[in-house]
Design goal:
mainly alpha; Fatty acid desaturase domain-containing protein; transmembrane helix
């Protein structure tokens, strides 16, 4: 344990008898099958919806709504791929993530999202957190949530990081290709299809990502991880049976920050395993559908 850190910023102390079971739950599997099947269902759903709409069997408005529903599970796929939690095989992990990203943000690269998201983990709620973009005045929030990729593009040059700049160049190359493809499709008279089958559902899905996975777990937003590791990210208690799958198990978002390589579907088991240790620390808790978190003080000072 790093004794130079303030007590509240230190990692959670885990008893030796729990270290083995915890490690088993937090290591990336050979293949995270629940995540893989979410990926398959999303791809089949989006492609099937688009085919039905293009054949005239489904109104474009209905196709737009269905595509949002099918794209939403891709958060877990793309996000887990950035943490290499989809598969211990790095190449397989990254290709699954890239294909998932292609359906929503083909202008982005997995490397760019990985770099930006790692900065969020290192600087949670701080000035160097790229997810600062999604916080602001209430009337700007939906626009911020649906444009967090733009926030990343603006954030990377400010950091002066060589890896980030390299990923930015790759992203601009992908963006140029996307604009060319969209331009050709519009020129050929398919602008309506691009708008209803991709642009609108993709942006609505990203708004959901920004709200559910970026903003809600950090809505308290007045404590950085460097000040208090377990208070900078929330836990949501109540309705776990249905909120767990709906939130892709990020109702236990603090556990993700503590063990980012763990497949999120393991979060409930991790919580049950180390609940006594976590309750020794300060927790930011949202109950049920509550937006604001309340502070549950730790049972004793962190060791």
């Amino acid at each position: 344990m790093n004794k130079t850190l303030p007590p509240d910023a230190r990692p959670v102390a885990i008893p030796p008898d729990k270290a083995g079971p915890l490690r088993a739950l937090t290591l990336p599997p050979r293949l995270a099958w629940p995540t893989f099947w979410m990926w398959v269902v999303s791809i089949v759903g989006v492609v099937g919806t688009d085919v039905l709409a293009l054949r005239g069997s489904l109104p474009y408005g209905a196709a737009c709504v269905l595509n949002v529903l099918f794209m939403y599970p891709l958060f877990g796929v793309i996000h887990d791929a950035t943490h290499r939690a989809v598969s211990s095989n790095a190449r397989l992990n990254d290709w699954i993530g890239r294909i998932g990203l292609l359906l929503i943000a083909p202008h982005g690269t997995l490397g760019m999202f990985r770099w930006a998201h790692m900065q969020h983990h290192r600087h949670t709620n701080g000035d160097k957190d790229p997810d600062e973009w999604i916080h602001g005045r209430w009337w700007t929030l939906p626009l911020r949530w649906m444009s967090f990729d733009l926030g990343y593009l603006l954030f990377i040059p400010s950091r002066g990081d060589a890896i980030g700049r390299r990923q930015l160049r790759h992203t601009f190359a992908a963006l140029a290709v996307l604009l060319a493809v969209v331009g050709v499709l519009v020129w050929l008279g398919h602008g309506r299809e691009v708008l209803w089958l991709w642009l609108i559902p993709a942006r609505l899905t990203m708004m959901l990502f920004g709200f559910v996975f970026f903003w809600l777990p950090h809505v308290k937003h007045d404590v950085t991880a460097e000040q208090n590791l377990t208070l900078a990210t929330s836990m949501r208690f109540g309705g776990e049976r249905w909120l767990g799958p709906l939130l892709q198990f990020h109702n236990y978002h603090l556990l993700h920050h503590l063990y980012p390589s763990a497949p999120p579907y393991n979060h409930p088991r991790i919580w049950r395993l180390i609940e006594p240790e976590l309750r020794q620390r300060d927790l930011a808790v949202q109950k049920g559908l509550a937006i604001r978190a309340e502070v549950w003080p730790g049972r004793r000072s962190a060791a």
